[in-house]
Amino acid sequence: EPEVTQTPSHQVTQMGQEVILRCVPISNHLYFYWYRQILGQKVEFLVSFYNNEISEKSEIFDDQFSVERPDGSNFTLKIRSTKLEDSAMYFCASSVVATSPFFGPGTRLTVL
Amino acid sequence: AQSVTQLDSHVSVSEGTPVLLRCNYSSSYSPSLFWYVQHPNKGLQLLLKYTSAATLVKGINGFEAEFKKSETSFHLTKPSAHMSDAAEYFCVVSDQYSSNYQLIWGAGTKLIIKP
After folding, report:
1. Domain that holds residue B49
2. CA–CA dist A27, B112 (Å, integer)
3. Which of A2, A3, A85, A109 is the most buried (most CB within 10 A)?
4. What CATH code is carried by the domain that includes residue A94?
5. CA distance A47 to chain B (A)
6. pLDDT (tens digit, 0 to 9) for every residue of chain A, 112 residues total?
């Protein structure tokens, strides 16, 4: 069964460093998403991406964040200058239509 | 604005007994509603979804949920719990008539299964 994959599973970085979280969505999917879950808090929407552009983003997704689909298979989330409060589990998801996305296993980001 | 309230942060049941995880939602429009499950160290897996068809929705692993508009509820049930059901369960709402593709998540309910 096809699934969304994410790498790395755990990323540790120093405050102020740039990180790139990588995702490989399911191959025939057209909509891509990033969500995050800070420890002990709700899952929060970050951004959705369709037709090679951002279709929706939340207030969390400020200028420090960017997304890219560099080669038709990967979907990346870049955080330019990480802050302590960026520590969270980041989930990538994809879907054929704009409902019921399939989620990856997540990347746990720890900012020290 | 949409919101989701999961009424219990933890639910503990004995193996073989029924499971009830409660969820209430608030939505300005006709909502799409979902239940996702997260096993330890695993991703978020879709259990079932409601998108304005039948109000009783059957999902994977024997789970089902009933959409009750008058009560704004979408409770998740299973007749007989199994040890492998131990996980965190999330009730989620999406506004299907909006161009906004966001999912709004509940806080989650940890299901504990006692042997």
Report:
1. 3-114
2. 35
3. A109
4. 2.60.40.10
5. 8
6. 788 999 999 999 999 999 999 999 999 899 999 999 998 888 999 999 998 899 889 999 999 999 999 887 899 999 999 999 999 999 999 998 877 789 999 999 999 9
Closest Cα partner for A47 from B12, B35, B101, B19? B101
Optimal mutation site among A24, A102, A103, interface B, most CBs of chain B within 10 A: A103
Whether pLDDT at B44 is above 70? yes
Does B106 sit within 8 Å of A42, measured CB to CB?
yes
Domains in chain A: how many in total? 1
Count of domains for chain B: 1
- Report residue B13 as tokens: 């049941």
Query: Taking CB atoms and an 8 Å cutoff, what residues of chain B touch A26?
Result: none
